[in-house]
Each structure stands twice: as structure tokens, then as C-alpha cells.
Amino acid sequence: MRILGFQTLVCTTILAIVPLCRAQYKQPELGTYNKPLELYKPDEVGVDEKPGAQVPLDAQLRNEDGETITFGSILRPNRPTILWLGYYECPMLCDKMSAGMVRAVKNIKLDAGTEFAVIQLSINPSEVPADAKAKKESYVQKMGTPGAATAWKLLTANPEPIAQVANAVGYKFKKVTVDGQTQFAHPAVLMILSPEGKVTRYLYPKAAEGVEFDDRTMQLSLIEASHGTIGSTVDRILLTCLHYDPTTGKYTWVAVNLMKVGGAITIVIMASILIPFWIRGPKNLLKWQGETRDSKTIHQFRST
Fold it and tell me: Which DSSP category does 230 fall into?
């Protein structure tokens, strides 16, 4: 009776949760995404999302020390990357993005530098490695973690490599003149790259004061991009029940996947109970028959 009661409880719980998950999940519309439209002009500056696009691994870049490297040399097996395009002397948007990035990277439960990396590439070809180095020092100080120095890669490049990377990921920006100064109009977006350098997710800031990124979405996006090689077991199991909804920019529950997981758990529980019984079935049956005969004998003896 206890076994049947436990199985009933499991099934009832799953059936109760599934309708709630189905109500929360909405089928995303193709070609839509959560973006702050006020930050750029349509058809001039923005993002043409290209999921699965390969970044140019042979693009020639410069690190903070002025060394010439390739994009592919930064990538590591089993380690996803957050790619951020902007520029270091940006007077407005980039400073807000950097603050939001630092907060999100500090809050997620992944080891920066070991489990994931952050690549920031300047879209201003006039900026030099010294600009990148000064900006990196501020990031490391704000992060205050041992892996901060290895986690952040701040790069500069000539116009051609910048265009190669930007075109590959669908990032559109434009040089503008404001009060006689050269600036760049650009979108606020992060690209999540797989260890092979393929785009797996576009992350946009959520509606808030300043520029904020959702910690949970960033963490799950990195774990998903790593093909399940980083993060906790709970996170990887959780991803089987979740689906990224580009209309909200968040992961939402999927009823079908939840039912699969619930069914698998139920099968495991039932198997753990029934298989030992089946293996010892003949012995249990003989034991039960013997106990039955003994109880009948005792009952007859007491009756007489």
C-alpha cells in the first residue's frame, strides 16, 4: 500500500506541474528577439541574428600586451565564451554595459576563466592595446576574483578583422560624429560562443535602470553552449526541462520535456522496487506460502 501511495503521489505531482509549465511556455516567433530598439536606428545599426554562425578563427587581433593573435587561439575546449563588441572610450552605452556585465559575471555560479571566458573586441580601429589594458585593469579590480585576469580578453584590431568578426555574428554598427567627436553607434548585445567558436545565443539587456543582464539566463546559456561540460548536474538536468524563448529573452519550462523527465524518474523508481521483487520472486513466493501454511496451522490449533 505504501508503494502504491508513493507512485500515486509522483504521478499526481507531475500531472499538476505539467499544465502550469504549458501555460508559461509560448512558442517563439521566428526572427523576433528582445532588443532595446531605442539604442539604435533600424537598418543602420542593429543585430541580424545568425545562430550557428562561425566566427573567423583566423582573424588577426591584438591582445592587451600588443601581441598579434588569432581569434581561434583564445578559444579552449569545453569552455564557452561571451563575445562583446563595443569600444573602450565609449562615453555612454559601453560603460553601462561593462557595469552590467561585471555584475552578471560575478553573480553566476560558474568559474570565470576556467569554465568560461569573456572576449571584448573594440570596434574602433583607432584604439590601441594600451586602451584595452587600462580597461581590463578596471574590470579585474571590480571583479575581485582570482580568475578575473584570465577570464577577460580585451582586444583591438585593424578595420578588416573587426568587420570580419562583426559580419560573422550579424553585428551592425556605424561611425557617427557627435559635437565634433567621432563616436560609434552600436547595439547592446552579447553573443555566446561554443568552444568551437559558433554563435549559440544572443543576450540582450533586460528592462531596468542602466544595462542589466539576467544572471540565470547567462548561466544557462553558457552551460548549454558548452554542450553540458560545465555547470552542476542540477543545471544540466534543468536544461532538459527548459527552452530559450527569444520573445522574452529567458528560459521557460517546456511541458513535453518535463513529462519525459517525470516519466523517466517514475520508471527508475518503479524499476528499483519491482526488479528486486522479480529477482527474488520464487523465493518470496515459497516464503509467503510457508508463512500462510504456518498461520493456518496456528489458527486451527487455537480453534481446537
Answer: S
